Amino acid sequence: MKTKLDSFERQIENAASSYRPLSKNRRAKVEGIVDRVRKRRTVNIRIAESVLEELKRRSQEEGLPYQTLISSILHKYVTNRLVDEEAIRKSLQILQQP
Question: Cα-flanking dihedrals φ and ψ of residue 9, to 5°?
Answer without folding.
Answer: -65, -35
